[in-house]
């Protein structure tokens, strides 16, 4: 009983952390695109709750959690407004490295947290189990918010641009699933999410890249 | 009985008006992008029925209304073909102001009508009630068709470009919800939708804008 | 019994063919955009399973088939990796005509197969029947994967660019539905899908185009 309660609390805390991180990444991208307060709020909100909405629609949990519990929506809006306030935005753009690192870290935390939350939802809700399916739902939940953010802002999605993005989500998802029954749900989720953030940071620092096709054509 | 019948009729009439308005905005944008008849029809159709499909998927009403009753689909196609006919398109582009105003008015009517229709659906279908959730479903239904239209046509969504777009939807949604139990559903929807259209027109005329972040960076 | 079994087998075979064809088109577009192995795999996967996911969400079959049976996911990933291997990609880009024809043929096969599979699903699952609704679900399933592919890769969707795309899907869908009760499901699906591929190839060869609006404006 106490363990279940504890798991619920940790899942809730992860949802909050992931929502805040993704909302910051969305609002910051909106700032960088010169959007107004409402545009920034919408981009922050879309990024913060988008992955969860996609996950819930896919697994047939309608209306999605965001529409049943306004917590995530309120957090995304508040975070976006804070990012917009003059002191915060002056700070973010006071140094071009700071902007890059903020986007990297917030986007990585959102990616890591939502990947393992997607796996958790698939385990809980779906009667169909299997490594491939858990991995797929996890990755889709993890990358969904960022893909919506980038497409709405008119950028090519990070997932096609950053060399170690979906790969990090994939490795973290597989690790989380492999550990699930061995070390317990909470630890498996923590290790999975932490590994994704770590891999993204290492990839950015050491400029990891996957093999790329050299096509003898322009465009 | 008579009152219920009347409400149903008014909701149906609003769905028709919103569909026509959004289909005109989609088809007109297709014309402006130099698309052919089929492209224009698809853009008109996507805009006309897109918001309603998003709404129905979110609240778990599947298959969406558009797939159960072909009325909206047929209307969107017919409207798009009419927009494409030479006399109509010559008229639309006979004056550059006319194109701008047509897009503004049709898009505003669609936004206003679908915002209150989203609120109505959330009230009717969902067992979860709350101002924030009604507002969210209303805004998502209102802006959904236009966001799909703009993204498919390769434009940055109006919601990020027009200064008083989501703000108008938000104010109209809150007004509609506040009046819901006080003046009756029909009047609340009428006032909410009308207010959204009025705010958009005033914003366009007086060049209202929200605070914008001035970032000392290019891009 | 044997007949039903046979129908199931043919539907399964069509799902495999459509998935392979669309995955090739997505992975090849990823190559052409200079993406890395992961980006190419994601674009191949999105295109291969995207249309089916949209179809299943629309008709309320959640979780979508792709999440219940990993076959399609695995096929899309394997196909994408094969497309990425040096000999294959050298071959694809050894001649610029070859790239164009490969994209045309794979995209056409995917379009044809998924259009009739969408109709099949609508017949099987939905209790609401009607030519317009079957046609709409069929076309949405057929064009969905390609629209996702093109929007994620930052291209204007084929559906707005290729002159005889949605038109081919529409004609094939209507033919399939008209023949459904007359010649049997299997033959109706085969003729419908074959007609779509044939129309697309003829359109490409003879440069068919639909009437286009000549607007006296730039942009």
Task: Give the secondary structure arrangement, pairings included.
3 copies of one chain form a homotrimer.
Chain A (H helix, E strand, L loop, with lengths): L1 H31 L4 H22 L6 H4 L2 H14 L1 H7 L3 H30 L5 H22 L5 H4 L4 H18 L1 H22 L13
Helix pairs in contact in A: 1-2, 1-4, 1-6, 2-4, 2-6, 2-7, 6-7, 6-9, 6-10, 7-9, 9-10
Short description:
Chains A, B, C: It is found in: Cell membrane. The structure is a homotrimer of 219-residue chains. With 219 residues, the first copy, chain A, is mainly α.
List keywords for this structure.
homotrimer; 219 residues; mainly alpha; transmembrane (chains A, B, C)
Characterize the structure shown.
3 copies of one chain form a homotrimer. Chain A contains 10 helices and no strands. The first copy, chain A, is mostly helical. Chain A has one domain (2-206). In chain A, α2 packs parallel to α6 (96-125), α6 crosses α9 (166-183) and α9 runs antiparallel to α10. The radius of gyration of chain A is 17 Å and the shape is globular. Chains in contact: A-B, A-C, B-C.
